[in-house]
Amino acid sequence: SWLKMSCRGVTPVLRSRTHARCPEEEIVITGISGKFPNSDNIGEFAKNLYNKVDLIDDDERRWRHTYAEIPKRSGKINHLEKFDATFFGVHFKQAHTMDPQSRLLVERAYEAVLDAGINPKSLRGTRTGVFIGACFSESEKTWFYEKVSTGGFGITGIYMNGVDIPIERMYPPVEYPVSRGTPMISPLIKWDHSEDWYVTKFEAQKILKSGERHCKVQLTMDDYEYISGHVIDGRILFPATGYLHLVWETYGMMKGDLFFDMEIEFSDVRFLRATNMTKDTEIEFLIMIQPGTGRFERMRINGRDHMNMFNEENPYFDVKVSKELNMISSGGVEIVGLHASPVARRRPPGVPVLETYKFIPHLPAPQMSQIDAVRTCVQLALENNPSFKVKAVEVDTRETTEPIITFFQEALGDLPLVSSDLMYLTAREIELTGVHVENGKLSTQTNCMFVIASDCLSNPDFVEKSVVSLTENAYLVSREPKELRVEDIKKDGSENVKLKLASDDKPVGMAMLLRNLGDETNSEKTILRVKSRDENVKYVSCALIIPGIEGVAGNAFYAISANISLPAFVLQLTHTIGLKTIPEIARAVIDDIKNEVMKSSEFFYLVGYSFGAFVTLEIARLLEESGMSGQILLIDGAPAFLKRLAIGQISEDYTDETVQCVLISGIIRTIFPDENPEDLFARISELKNWEERVNKLVELGKHQHVYSEGYLRKMTDALYMRIKVTLEVETETPVPLKCPITLVRPTEVSIVDIDEDYELSRYTEGRDVKRWVAPTLKELRRRREKVGPEPLRPRSSHLEWNYKAEIFAFGSRLHENFDEKLLRQAFTHRSYIIQEEMKQKEVGIEQPDVGMLDNREMVQEGDELIGRYLDQYIESTMPKIPLEGRISIREYLMKEENLAHISNHIGTRDLILSAEFPVTNSTLADTFKAVVAALEQTSGSERASTFVRDFVFTQLNQKDLEEIWQVQNPLQYLTEYCSRNNLGDVEPRLIGECGRNTILAAYHVGIYCNRELLGTGFGENIDIAIEEAARDSLRDIFNTQAWRQPINFQECPPPNTQ
């Protein structure tokens, strides 16, 4: 409206071109567009102004406050990074390097023309004035002062669109002895850099205000190119003195002086690990110098020019070693007390290591040699704590026995993938090959997997101190006398031994499952009083706890009642097992509650856990009908939440058979964690009815608990009936209660698409549930952050996991009919079979037989199939691309990360049987290859080739082939290609140029062959223009242009499967 007011009384008039405008005539604005601070258009800007919105802020989303030229508060444009390059016909590479003002200009100009009701295309060819005003540009510094490569799409982008701007008209005319426009020869003259000349390099020393510095190191950098020659065992390692150099240089930056002119001494230096480097990766080091309280000695550094010392006449420093002083000196650097651990070398592949698998019983203790005992310790340790680097330290506590650290050296040396760091701490003068010997203290050592000593069980102080040197899940190896008996250690009251052994009565199996089933002797009581903070017999109000699906007072509820400040009771639902609805259960116990719990109180406190939330709400409704009032506390339970959780784990279209199978499967996985759950489930599910299945289940677990068989049958029936009650409960139209409800729920729940209050707000007219939930959630979140995230667990550890069903679902999702046996083999890796065989050996099976085949042969077969199918697809769809290009495309599609990405998204990650978790990209890629081989063996080559086309070949969609197949020297490649195909000689010619000897110079080069133009290119200099022209020629010859017709994957001809 404010725009209309400014043009009040003005009528737009369309006049012919010959019409002469009167001087008094006003100008009419028929179209307008703009983008303002925090306003994307004119209307939004006007709305913000009318509402008095402050459009100026002080955040740092555009500029940091540390820039002196930027005010603290400023207006900022939204979405400055967004630009529809395709709509405006701008190449995506050029769009990335365009000035932001240019992008905004074309967008706003287009909007203004449309706002005027004019089609922008109709203005082409007309005499329409365009007036542009611009202030400073943020990109000026980037273009003029920093090394930015535009790839030929910078200023020269306008020439690629056919616009020739004669920049030379901006300069006074120059009379040449030749005609205007004749190319000059000076740009073709280049410097001869065939010889290297060493000159002094002057650099400014940066200054650090803090002791922290990030330093990026790459082998392609001039300052670190020398590191590529530091190769040990086939790997490029960052040299140890390189770390000292970085610290030295950082210290100089802190002091503001040149580091090579400073005096500095390093003491107590220890290098913990080596850093591997590759030519294509960049490593960032973090150097932190913290001021300490110790005094530092200074060492004089020669003031000579160190840069001139490295030349062809003096390429090395003289190194002097003094064994008496334990000192190494070179130039102006002295190193005292150097200890270098031997670098672990890979065992040559030609040296075989023979392995023998033996069963070693724990009791009775076997008679073994020292080397065999050490090998056993090493194997057990690495099996429970896999590691590629093992540090072992032996402490000479007896000073009379021979060290056994050499046995550890031999045992670890037979493992080709494990490197070792071995140390022997002793006051004796002894030399051990490959082991560092020093007279030191164990307290100075850290991250040890093994600490070896003697008589540790009689020296508890040493054991306590050695824990500091051990890493997590590490081991203390003690050399004890033969007459020591383990039984003596377990005796209570021992004066010499203070070590605590692990308890032998840890609950496992059925005991772990039934730890909350309460006391069988008190299970027949409907109301059971439990211990709380208030033990008074006479009370005005009390708390009633309604347990979960088990329905009895377990250990968890004793812990809850201990923190309640009221007399506490637990409602046991043992007598309600046969009831089928929640109202029936509540009516069956309400009289007992009124007579034994609420007889002298008019206010109730109800605490319901999980399934108990159903009964709690119904009991509260009955108590309110009798005139009482109170409060409800629900712990991770609500009707809507529990019903959706049960349906998600079973099915909405469930049957009694389905509920029984899910319940039995869950109990089996909890009772028998070390057994094969699928075999046990198959044996139980074959029985005819529920009663026989329960009897079989009780019989299998009778040795793992203290309950009677009748009680276990009753509890199993209770679980079954209450699951059915949960599935059938009505949650759509609840009757609201008057009492308030407090919900306690975990921060991470099993159902994510549910309200924060579990939809409990529909069950109460009292105070809002969410108001009570917020403090609890904050506390739970704080505790979760303190404990840390839960460890990642495989889906197979969930109770409802069914591997056979998942295998079937995998093929159904892909619409492929796999052979189940072959598909299982495709998902089985060798490491899993080895792991299962070791488990069988641990229980005494001498000849373990897992009964499974691994997928090694299928991986190799699948790799060959995928490669052959891709070669034929690429050749049929891109026939003009030469062989080396097709090979590059195939290698790109078969890269490990690509196949792993495909494998993960088709759902193989959770089905893979492997000893490692989570599985690596290598395992995912191998599994995908094995799946292709299984499909080929099941359904034939035609289905397998279609599978490869749909999942692998389609990865080329919207991919730039030039990024996949990169020609390093396009002109040389083009010359060789034309010569090989008898097309003639390749000749680059300069077609046009402008802005010579300026920063805006542009050259237009064409590539000719046999008097035909193959392609053209633009560039800031001749070399770039020739390279772009050669690339443009190759694109036309091989049909790899960005605008080429996309591949129709659906109509790809099937490959020849013969």
UniProtKB/TrEMBL annotation:
Q: Which SMART domains match?
A: PKS_KS (SM00825), RIBOc (SM00535)
Q: In terms of domain of life, where is this protein from? A: Eukaryota
Q: What is its main location?
A: mitochondrion
Task: Tell me which EC number(s) this protein carries.
Answer: 3.1.2.14
First-tier enzyme category under EC:
hydrolase
Pfam families named in the record = DSRM_MRPL44, ketoacyl-synt, RM44_endonuclase, Thioesterase
Q: Which PANTHER family match?
A: FATTY ACID SYNTHASE, FATTY ACID SYNTHASE 3
What does the sequence similarity comment in the record state about its family?
Belongs to the ribonuclease III family. Mitochondrion-specific ribosomal protein mL44 subfamily.
Q: What's this protein's name?
A: Large ribosomal subunit protein mL44
